[in-house]
């Protein structure tokens, strides 16, 4: 994940945030599997926006992450729910993209910097705008 190290304290924070992001990337499958087992019968069912948001929030809660935004993207074939999230703060902040097909399936978690999803390109910009709006309020 390559967070920049700036002194002992910053490197500890960077390592902690990297570990949190790694934990999210590694643990989300287990959490999603448990949530899907509760919510879905043997065959896939479409996933509502509310259910997708709940799954993302539960996953992010495990690592102290924050959902920045979510959207539904319709397309051929099918479509997907997509959310952008932030883990960490300042220079050590990581942006994640969480997605799931509209028809259901696994929650995919990937770093925005490595994602081919077009939504990944706006995650950091959105976080910056939201921060400025919070500061102005």
UniProtKB/TrEMBL annotation:
Residues 12-23 have a biased composition (Basic and acidic residues). Residues 33-45 have a biased composition (Low complexity). It comes from the Bacteria. Residues 1-50 are annotated as: Disordered. This is Uncharacterized protein. It comes from Pseudaminobacter soli (ex Zhang et al. 2022).
């Amino acid at each position: 994940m390559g967070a920049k190290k700036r002194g002992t304290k910053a490197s500890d924070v960077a390592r902690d945030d990297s570990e949190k992001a790694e934990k999210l990337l590694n643990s989300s499958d287990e959490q999603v599997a448990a949530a899907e087992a509760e919510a879905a019968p043997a065959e896939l069912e479409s996933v509502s926006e509310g259910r997708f948001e709940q799954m993302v929030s539960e996953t992010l809660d495990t690592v102290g992450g924050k959902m920045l935004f979510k959207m539904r993207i319709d397309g051929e074939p099918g479509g997907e729910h997509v959310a952008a999230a932030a883990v960490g703060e300042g220079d050590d902040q990581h942006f994640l993209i969480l997605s799931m097909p509209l028809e259901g399936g696994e929650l995919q978690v990937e770093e925005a910097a490595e994602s081919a999803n077009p939504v990944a390109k706006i995650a950091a910009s959105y976080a910056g705008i939201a921060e400025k709006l919070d500061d102005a309020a």
